Amino acid sequence: MNEILKYTLMIVIILFTLTTIAAWLIWLERRMLALWQDRYGPNRAGPFGLFIVVADTIKLFFKEDWIPPFAEKAVFVFAPAIVAAAVLLSFVVVPFAPDILVADLDIGLLFFLAMSSLGVYSIVLGGWASNNKYSLLGALRGASQMISYEVFMGLSLMGVVMLSGSFRLTDIVMAQKDLWFVVTQPVAFVLFLTAGIAETHRLPFDIPEAESELVAGFHSEYSGMKFGMFFIGEYLGIILISAMVVTIFFGGWLGPFLPPVVWFTLKTFVFIVFFILLRASLPRPRYDQLMEYGWKIILPIALLNLLVTGAFTLLKN
Amino acid sequence: MISLLRSIGLTFLHMFRKRETIQYPEEKIVLHPRWRGRIVLTRDPDGGERCVGCYLCAAACPVDCISLQATEDENGRRYPAFFRINFSRCIFCGYCEEACPTYAIQLTPDFEMGEYNRQNLVYEKEDLLIDSQGKYPGYNYYKVAGLAAGVKGKGEGENEEPPVDIRSLIP
Lengths: 317, 171
Prior knowledge:
By secondary structure, chain A is an all-alpha fold. Chain A has helices spanning about 1-35, 50-60, 75-90, 110-120, 120-130, 135-165, 170-175, 180-185, 185-200, 225-250, 260-280, 285-315. The longest helix of chain A is centred in the first third of the chain and has 35 residues, at about 1-35.
């Protein structure tokens, strides 16, 4: 009984914190983008413009929630929920600290990979149900991008699994007690980060959205809170990928002096800011270029990395 | 790959640059004297209206936002009975100022004309007429015009000869 209460409380707290941070990221992103473009960004509503998030949320709630008459109604309504749900499910296995995590699954890494790739269903279904050619094109791009980048996302992590000998995320963190995996697996880190950006459909890999080519891509027809759900899903995705990068390559909660949660939050924050910096600085590659990089360059590198890591592990034993 | 890292680094360094933004209500931009803003009707040095109601500004206006009606006083001096500018239509192109033969209509460096009610953007003559000579101090149209309209007699203007008696044979 006590156990159940504890986990329920944990889930509620984590859920609440994550959604709050995801909403607050809208403000952070706008301020950081402005900072890198020699502007100030939203700084009027409340201290440092923080209340812009409240204003945005109220605005989204009061927008007309329109479903186009030509859309596939049930799927259209259902699609935005998938992305947020899938990302939130992945957070089940993220170890924020030794005692703050919902479930310490022994297949944690696989669970994360599975759940994060489920998110693409919302893009595909949303784009298809919109019954709009631009949405469908965006959905198509989303699907193909996911297929090609999911492959080496998993492959790049296998080196880490080899070194730590476990799929359990807490074991992976504890295996970095002496040396972070970013030192031993630098190639895997770069590959995973690249795949992670593609996974969250952030710039420069936002080709399913590509507002300069496809209106707004898969969510062209969405408005109001349904659009908001896509947005929340995107920001949750940023937090998730940053958290996973920290967990797998930067020693998770490990660090001196400060409490583990603070270390985890700090490291994750750095990567969230890096995500925003990427958006501020890099142009979007062409669709076919993206596919080419994925299959012809990054996949062979990932395989090679796996091979070398395997050989080293064998030699050490 | 190198160029990608370089552009990321350059963007990051922009963090320490000076901001381009002017925090408007607190901090104000320097408006130049030729800024084309709120339109005014100026007066001559003697305090009379410069506008002679020639309709050239209304004709030049590309959006037809100026309307006026000319009339005359007892001395034969023309002036507008009403002069109306609809600033919700005005595009501040300055053609009216260029067309004006008496320097009466002028554009000023002022843009803070926001209103909550659209009807309040229609300015009447008493809103437009200011107590100033604007950009051309000392200019009085009726002093250089040949016409006597209560400002000066015939031939008494600047650079003007007295009228010739056409019935006299004396040169």
